Amino acid sequence: MRLILRVFFVLALAAGLAACGKKGPPEAPGKSEYPRTYPAPR
Would you say the pTM of this structure is higher than 0.70? Predict the structure, then answer.
């Protein structure tokens, strides 16, 4: 019974880690407004 519980917890942790992350190749962000001065000019 203890072995089954250990296997279950290991699989649950592995599934949680596998669900994280971005699918596909990374893409560069578009045009950015940063850096900008603070406070913004009116």
Answer: no
Q: How far apart are the first and last CA of the chain?
A: 68
Three-class DSSP category at 28? coil
Structure tokens at 34: 């940063």
Q: Left if phi > 0, otherwise alpha if psi is -120 to 50, otherwise beta: which for 21?
A: left
**Per-residue pLDDT tens over the stretch 2-34:** 999 999 999 999 888 877 776 778 787 788 777
